[in-house]
Amino acid sequence: MNGETRTGGPQGRDGGGERADDGGRPDPNRWRALWVTLVAGFMTLLDVTIVAVALPSLQRDLNASAASVQWVVSGYTLAFALTLVTAGRLGDAFGRRRLFLAALAAFVLCSAAAGAAPTVTLLVVARLAQGVAAGSLAPQNSALIQQMFHGAERARAFGLFGATVGISSAVGPVAGGLILALADGPQGWRWIFYVNVPVGVLALLLGSRLLPRVGPRHRGRLDPGGVVLLGAGILALMLPLVLAEAGGLNRLWWLFPAGALILAAFVAWERRLAARDRAPLLEPRLLTGTRGYAAGAGLATLYFVGFSGVWLVFALFFQNGLGYSPLASGLAVTPFAVGSAIAAAAAGRLVGRLGRLLTVWGLVAVMAGLGGTALTLWLAPADRAVWITAPLLFAGGLGSGCVISPNITMTLRNVPVRMAGAAGGALQTGQRLGAAVGTAALPGLFHLALHATHDDYHRAVAIAVGSGAAAMLCALAVAVADRRRDRPGDSPDPAPRSHGHSRADHANPTH
């Protein structure tokens, strides 16, 4: 095959620039190793939303201001997003297993520190460090899947990974409410952080035994200029959003154009490095020469604008408008999480046959489910609205499960394994940026609608959730356009066994 080698084949290469010890055989521990990475990934993503329900009791117990408490949530999100691409590149260059285990250990320690924090200042510091650890761990998940699996198995693995991404965001309020209900008392919020410790330690022990031992074929060099430019650009775009409740959008609006200019400088810098055969932080040809990557990353960013924001709106409506407890509020939206879990597992098997069409159908379903929920909460009697919306949310969850996991598969399907960490980090950075926009915009729209309608919670939730569904129209437009560009015979893993450097590599600029 033109001098190609298979994963761990005669030359021991995996196409990702790493040396495998498997002698050409599939890793017998790959599925067990996958579950370890999924559990760790679930914890890091769950911590984005699980803390929100504990903020009132946390603020009371630590005698903290509303602005400082907001940093407990926004600081984690910001640090998470800032770290993703750089950590993905580090994993590609210096070993994904090594970075995964180090980041997981740091996440466990920071979780314990957050739970034990005696002041809000120390809690915010612990959360910032926890966000860095989470951002360092997250891109290794998708990169390890690229490395361990091929063909139909890779699609199934990405289906489970996509389910983890979608479900962790949806069940955060439920999990947080359940922990607060079980750990009743003035310090009960601390268990939201402590619960990560035993789970993380177990994942660390299993990961050290099960994750594949591979090493980089050659030590990579980090791109410090790219790290600074990308970090500054993302910080400029996200800081006004994470500080939106404290007036960040009004005071820091000028950071948006500044961030766009910095990111433009980052793109120019990366192109310059690539043209000189240097190692850029993020290979520009991922976007220009890798089939499906740009469309998938854009779709994910747009989808998470609507997907992430609606959960805060639901929490505000059920708790403040209808007087539900945090647990009851979380349980009210559980049908969405259930539907997402069911569909994501099946979507991993279907994406090979349906391709981008699956995400088109999924987006239509999730928009219909959320749109129907918005109308029902506006028009139906309050005592029956939750029961009527349950099947609508379930249908929306089924649609979401057909969006997130298939899109991850199709976005990363043509990415060379040697670039998998950076590519996965960039994809998740887009998701985090979209989530930051959604969590700032939709609750803000909800409060504006409340003021305009004289505290009509039913109309306000309909406007905000309906706007979230409308935001997904942009994602649908990207999906339809990408579907029209699909070539006959495209598959989620079109060249699953082409992993060595061959003559085909020189024909494909992304390798």
Automatic annotation (TrEMBL):
Q: Which GO terms describe its biological process?
A: response to antibiotic
Annotated signal sequence is none
Can you tell which superkingdom this protein's organism belongs to? Bacteria
The Major facilitator superfamily (MFS) profile domain covers 33-485
Q: Where in the cell is it found?
A: Cell membrane
Q: Where is the composition biased (Basic and acidic residues)?
A: 15-26, 502-511
Short name of one Pfam family: MFS_1
The protein, known as? Probable actinorhodin transporter
User: What organism does the record attribute this protein to?
Assistant: Streptomyces leeuwenhoekii
